[in-house]
Design a protein that fits this description.
The strands form 2 sheets. This protein has a 5-stranded antiparallel sheet with strand order 1-2-3-4-5, sandwiched between helices. A hairpin with an 8-residue loop joins strand 1 and strand 2. It has a single domain, classed as Gcn5-related N-acetyltransferase (GNAT) (Aminopeptidase, 3-Layer(aba) Sandwich). By secondary structure, it is α+β, with helices and mostly antiparallel strands. Helix 6 packs across helix 8. Bound molecules: coenzyme A. The site of coenzyme A (COA) has 22 residues, from strand 5, helix 6 and helix 8. The site of coenzyme A has 22 residues, from strand 5, helix 6 and helix 8. GO terms for molecular function: N-acetyltransferase activity.
């Protein structure tokens, strides 16, 4: 049985609020933002956010041309929809606005209960992307290292281009703490694939379990080449929730 969100945790829930600069304010003043559960009425907007503000920027998706390869794009949207249906994805809104400012695709991973999605994937780009992510998590046994039987993971952090550079990704990551507490999870771990997410994660206390430079993956498998990728390394990083 895959993990299911317990009915005892209210849904939809607001997990985190914070003040940050607003690109729509000329006076440089701060505006309040909130991080809350994604609801079904906004699934299409979340797909739009990830299509327009993730696929051509995140190093692995950009390198593998996921947005520009019809089969791969169909597969990634199918994967997002599956994640959304687990009701763990969080989104960020600005008070008084319906615009989706950012999002984080979250999921709970349990020991001995992993779904092998690679068999459902046909495109070479998505296969390679999944393979390197799996290499990271299989090399470090997080369950053993941290003595947990489940943890909160993530499959994509995105901030709308016009809101970037204002600390919003950092605040979205902070929401992991109250989320973990509400679900009784003692650990959150993620493969951070870009410097723009590795810096925020470090700032709020994530520690690196494993770092692999993109040009090191060919040593693992000669087909895992990333010549010219816009990024340096993938970091598997973890935050222990006290
Ligand atoms: C990565 C992303 C989520 C960051 O969002 P954001 O709201 O701009 O992030 P923050 O403002 O909280 O922090 C970003 C930090 O990284 C730094 N940074 C971003 N890009 C950088 C780069 N190319 N080189 C060096 N530092 C960089 C910023 O300066 C900032 O650090 P600072 O606050 O110390 O100056 C956003 O750029 C995005 O959606 N990118 C596309 C998808 C992606 O790559 N997601 C991450 C994959 S795990």
């Amino acid at each position: 049985m895959p993990w299911e969100r317990p009915a005892s945790v209210p849904y939809p829930n607001v997990w985190w609020t914070f003040d940050a600069p607003d690109p729509d304010r000329d006076d440089g003043g701060l505006t309040t933002y909130r991080v809350e559960d994604l609801t079904e009425d906004r699934y299409d907007d979340a797909v739009k956010l990830y299509t327009e503000n993730f696929l051509d920027d995140e190093p692995l998706c950009q390198y593998n041309r996921i947005r520009h390869t019809p089969v791969a794009y169909e597969e990634v949207v199918g994967f997002w929809m599956h994640c959304f249906s687990e009701r763990m994805t969080v989104v960020c809104y600005k008070e008084g606005s319906k615009e989706m400012v950012g999002a984080n695709l979250l999921a709970v991973k349990e020991i001995n209960n992993s779904v092998d999605i690679s068999k459902l994937i046909r495109s070479a780009g998505m296969q390679k992307l999944i393979a390197v992510n799996e290499y990271m998590t299989e090399t470090v046994n997080l369950f053993e290292r941290y003595g947990v039987d489940k943890y909160l993971t993530a499959y994509g952090l995105s901030v709308n281009n016009r809101y970037r550079g204002r600390g919003i990704a950092t605040e979205i990551l902070k929401a992991r703490v109250p989320i973990c507490r509400a679900f009784g999870l003692r650990l959150t771990s993620t493969n951070f694939t870009a410097i723009g997410s590795q810096i925020p994660a470090t700032k709020i206390g994530f520690k690196t379990d494993l770092e692999m430079r993109y040009d090191e993956f060919v040593k693992v498998n000669p087909t895992y080449t990333f010549d010219g990728i816009k990024g340096t390394s993938i970091k598997l990083m973890s935050l222990v929730i006290e």
